Amino acid sequence: MSLADIRQTYQKFELLESAVLPDPFQQFNQWLEQALHSEVREPTAMALATVDADGQPAARIVLLKEVSASGFVFYTNYESRKGLALTAHPQASLLFFWPELERQVRIEGRVTPLSPEESDAYYQSRPLGSRIGAWASPQSRPMTHEALAEQVQALTRRLGTDPERPPFWGGYCLCPQRFEFWQGRPSRLHDRLVYTHDAEAKAVASWHITRIAP
């Protein structure tokens, strides 16, 4: 079978304006809860798209660690490729894809670093191996498998069982300015509802819902 012949029929649900919540955070949480209780293998996995100082876009999968009225939180090495891109251009996009539910959510907004206290609290909640790994990995830089293993062993001996957070590692929060909820439908006539934000208003009513063509 050629790639051009691969098709999937989407028909599980529909997405109507009359059925969605006025607050996109609540709508997202509703869909995330359904994904958590379905057969979605990695419901918190999201593609993070950034643009670097040269205008080169890049995307990778990261894990959502918190969602609140402030935004969507993830953690990484500040000196990694994504960290440097966010320093140069603190705008990014997130994409959740839950194929078992035939759904996507796209979120765009501005990204800001979390406070050191917030990053410390999350770092201390991680398994010890992950905490050591954050110290050991010069993320996105060349390093052999053997050198990484040696670095992990050396840091495990030196840092002990309660290492502090590396100063080059921590969290970011994407504050949404736009949401798009996508529900697969037959004949590629997919439902797409977009929430856009009135930056001058603070209430839920500041979010405007628009249907766009598939």
Overview of this protein structure:
This protein is of the alpha+beta class and 214 residues long. The chain has one domain (9-130, 167-211): Pnp Oxidase, Chain A. The chain contains five helices and nine strands, in the order H-E-E-E-E-H-E-E-H-H-H-E-E-E. Strands 1, 2, 3, 4, 5, 6, 7, 8 and 9 form a nine-stranded antiparallel β-sheet that branches. The relative contact order is 0.19.
Radius of gyration (CA) equals: 20 Å
Question: Span between N and C termini?
Answer: 26 Å
Oligomer class: single chain
Number of separate domains? 1
By DSSP, the count of extended strands is 9
> At the first level of CATH, what is the class?
Mainly Beta
Give the mean pLDDT.
Answer: 95
Helix fraction? 25-40%
Q: How much strand?
A: 25-35%
Residue ranges: pLDDT <50 for 5 or more in a row? none
Which architecture does the CATH hierarchy give at level 2?
Answer: Roll
Structural descriptors:
nine-stranded antiparallel β-sheet; single chain; alpha+beta; 5 helices; Pnp Oxidase, Chain A; 214 residues; 33% strand
